[in-house]
């Protein structure tokens, strides 16, 4: 470490500069968030289901994949742009839907939305936002946004939010299909996790009676509908002109059914390892889904993205775009909008560098030839 960052005798200004310099990669933001958030808030964001095998494997799976870089390809000019659902974004990384951003930063989802708008990428707003969809749109009026939703026992609740977001200019609906029931997250149970009293699930303000009985993640327990089935995809399509994207598919069988039911995209996702423990890492599930879909609809992925080379591997294996969940929250905890922008910028810079070092000048040149297939 250089003498200017020797912490024994440095001024506050220099200390601040050293702190700035320390944010080099996404794990630096993770460490900052862990130190600065309350234990129950950190545990909520970090939680996986049961023994957290799937949560951890989401990351470890990337480390098992090796690249086959091509050299002498003139990478003096590079272009990271791509499109999702016909809309151009600056690079193939968007922000996945995660709940309760106001627990990490006082402006919550409004800050997240502004960061995504500034970087020109897609932000999937969670149903479980601590800012309303109206506040989010007002904060970043020109942002490109999709809305994530669940199907509730009270279908009118789902219906009213669909009409609200369509009127507000959200460009797609992301139906999360892997939560008929909430996974068992041990730390949340131990901490008796509750949304802090000054926060609420803003989108349901006035629509759901204050919970008199047990509450689960900010809304009354048993609000989610475990009877959800493929016919509900048709029901959702009947309510809206927006494209419907299904989040939570991990098998080729369900990918085929998704295509047959006319959805416009699939997000390969295991809910950040927070639902079924023992399922596959998303990057390991990606290939069979891409092979089954064969370009009929776009395939995206979330879970475990921590570096630009992770992004490169996912795109090489057929993901049109990846989405980051926890790292966006760490960016928020660090410095709100600016922190989320920094996280996205670091990933963009790392992705551009990995592309160039692999011999790819643009996203179209990234393909499966870049991936070393495991030796039998």
UniProtKB/TrEMBL annotation:
Principal EC category: oxidoreductase
Gene3D superfamilies linked: Aldolase class I
Binding site for glyoxylate: 44, 150, 185, 271, 274
Gene Ontology molecular function, alphabetical: (S)-2-hydroxy-acid oxidase activity
Catalytic activity: 2-hydroxyoctanoate + O2 = 2-oxooctanoate + H2O2; a (2S)-2-hydroxycarboxylate + O2 = a 2-oxocarboxylate + H2O2
Highest taxon above the source species: Eukaryota
Catalytic activity, EC: 1.1.3.15
Keyword Oxidoreductase: yes
Catalytic residue positions: 271
Residue ranges of domain FMN hydroxy acid dehydrogenase in the record: 18-376
PROSITE patterns: FMN_HYDROXY_ACID_DH_1, FMN_HYDROXY_ACID_DH_2
UniProt keyword terms in alphabetical order: Flavoprotein, FMN, Oxidoreductase
InterPro entries the UniProt entry points to: Aldolase_TIM, Alpha-hydoxy_acid_DH_FMN, FMN-dep_DH, FMN_HAD, FMN_hydac_DH_AS
Cofactor: FMN
Protein family (similarity comment): Belongs to the FMN-dependent alpha-hydroxy acid dehydrogenase family.
Protein name (database record): (S)-2-hydroxy-acid oxidase
């Amino acid at each position: 470490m250089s003498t200017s960052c020797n912490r024994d005798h440095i001024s506050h200004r220099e200390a601040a500069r050293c702190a700035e310099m320390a944010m080099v990669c996404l794990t630096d933001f993770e460490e900052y968030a862990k130190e600065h958030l309350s234990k129950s808030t950190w545990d909520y964001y970090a939680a996986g289901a049961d023994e957290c095998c799937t949560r951890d494997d989401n990351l470890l799976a990337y480390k098992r994949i090796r690249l086959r870089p091509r050299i002498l390809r003139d990478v003096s000019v590079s272009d990271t742009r791509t499109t999702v659902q016909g809309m151009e974004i600056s690079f193939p990384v968007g922000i996945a839907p995660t709940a309760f951003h106001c627990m990490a930063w006082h402006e919550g989802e409004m800050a997240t939305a502004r960061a995504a708008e500034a970087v020109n990428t897609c932000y999937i707003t969670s149903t479980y936002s601590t800012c309303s969809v109206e506040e989010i749109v007002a904060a970043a009026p020109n942002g490109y946004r999709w809305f994530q939703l669940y199907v509730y026992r009270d279908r009118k609740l789902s219906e009213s939010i669909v009409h609200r977001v369509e009127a507000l200019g959200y460009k797609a609906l992301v139906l999360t299909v892997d939560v008929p029931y909430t996974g068992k997250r041990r730390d949340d149970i131990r901490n008796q996790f509750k949304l802090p009293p000054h926060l609420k699930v803003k989108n349901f303000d006035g629509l759901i009676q204050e919970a008199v009985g047990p509450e689960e993640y900010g809304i009354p327990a048993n609000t989610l509908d475990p009877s959800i089935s493929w016919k509900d995809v048709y029901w959702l399509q009947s309510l809206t002109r927006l494209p419907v994207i299904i989040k939570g598919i991990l098998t080729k069988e369900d990918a085929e059914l998704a295509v047959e039911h006319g959805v416009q995209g699939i997000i390969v996702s295991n809910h950040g390892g927070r639902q079924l423990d023992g399922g596959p890492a998303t990057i390991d599930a990606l290939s069979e889904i891409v092979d089954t879909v064969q370009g009929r609809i776009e395939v995206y992925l979330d879970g475990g993205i921590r570096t630009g080379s992770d992004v490169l591997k996912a795109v090489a294996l057929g993901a049109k775009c990846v989405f980051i969940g926890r790292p966006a929250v760490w960016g928020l905890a660090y410095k709100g909008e600016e922190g989320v922008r920094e996280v996205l910028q670091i990933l963009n810079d790392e992705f551009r560098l990995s592309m160039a070092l692999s011999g790819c000048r643009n996203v179209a040149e990234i393909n499966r030839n870049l991936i070393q297939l495991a030796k039998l």
